[in-house]
Write a structure and sequence with these properties.
Elements: H1 5-19, E1 26-32, E2 38-43, E3 48-53, H2 62-73, E4 81-85, E5 90-94, H3 101-104, H4 110-125, H5 137-144, H6 146-155, H7 162-180, E6 184-187, E7 196-197, E8 205-206, E9 213-216, H8 219-225, H9 234-248, H10 254-268
């Protein structure tokens, strides 16, 4: 029998009671997630923590713990873990606050905030990706096929002709080739302005990293600079892309790197 919302709430409360140093606390919703996970803020008199509730039958926490540990070992600011229970699907962690990059970005703040994000990304890419799922052709095509299935068919009610399918499939082939011909590295997969938090120490705080894979070297760069939620003038993007190329792949010529960036950005969107 599926667990009721009240039963799950009781489990959350029991987990927090077992791992908090004080019995005087309250639990309030912190944020939702595009999955079965939910996040709760545990508020005490002088501190707050975040409780991640990840039902183990749908959202096992082992990948989150593994990736978080790898990022932390590389000196990146991920939430410190205070307690976890894989069987129940709970993690009690550091509260990185509510200052996501997105609402703080403007013409004046963009350069320093992106400088921190790009410096952190260079460290992410140097992490050993052993054991991670591979961003292979099947994964890339599966994501691309969401476009005709959902955008064209479901939302537009449009069925491509045979000739139009040929064009779509040729485009898919080009995008997959561009992604696979690049150097492959540790990829966060959702490295953008809503998953980067402004923090006082080792900015940015990095969240939502459990989907990390071995994938294209420009993937996270495209996630950050071809962000769904904010757009920048081409000249600023050019400068950020070129600075990052010079830092992490100076052996790749600028035009090739920019082509990879544009095409992986297209695949992602």
């Amino acid at each position: 029998m599926p667990m009721s919302a009240n039963d799950r709430a009781a489990q959350r409360l029991d987990f927090v009671r077992r791992h908090q140093s004080t019995a005087d606390f309250r639990i309030a919703p912190a944020s939702a997630d595009a999955s079965f996970r939910s996040y709760w803020r545990v508020e005490c008199a002088h501190s707050t923590r975040i409780l991640m509730d990840a039902p183990p039958d749908t959202e096992p926490i082992a990948p989150w713990l593994d990736i978080g540990a790898r990022l932390h070992a590389a000196g990146l600011h991920t939430p410190q873990v205070f307690a976890s229970d894989a069987s129940q699907g709970f993690v009690l962690m550091e509260d990185l606050g509510d200052r996501a990059y997105l609402p703080q970005l403007n013409d004046a703040s963009a350069d320093p905030l992106y400088a921190d994000a790009l410096a952190a990304l260079a460290r992410v890419q140097a992490i050993d990706a052993s054991g991670l799922p591979v961003y292979d052709r099947a994964q890339l095509v599966m994501e691309l096929e969401l476009m005709p299935e959902w955008f064209l068919a479901r939302h537009l009610g449009f069925t491509p002709s045979c000739e139009e399918w040929d064009v779509i499939e040729a485009a898919f082939t080009l995008l997959v080739h561009a992604a696979r011909e690049q150097p492959q590295c540790f990829v966060h997969r959702d490295y953008h302005s809503r998953n980067l938090m402004i923090v006082e120490r080792d900015n940015p705080g990095i969240i939502d990293f459990q989907g990390a894979m071995l994938g294209p070297i420009v993937y996270d760069l495209a996630s950050l600079l071809r962000d769904c939620y904010i757009a920048w003038p081409v000249a600023r993007i050019d400068a950020w892309v070129e600075a990052f190329r010079s830092r992490i792949a100076p052996e790749v010529d600028a035009s090739t790197f920019r082509r990879w960036f544009d095409l992986v950005g297209l695949q992602r969107h």
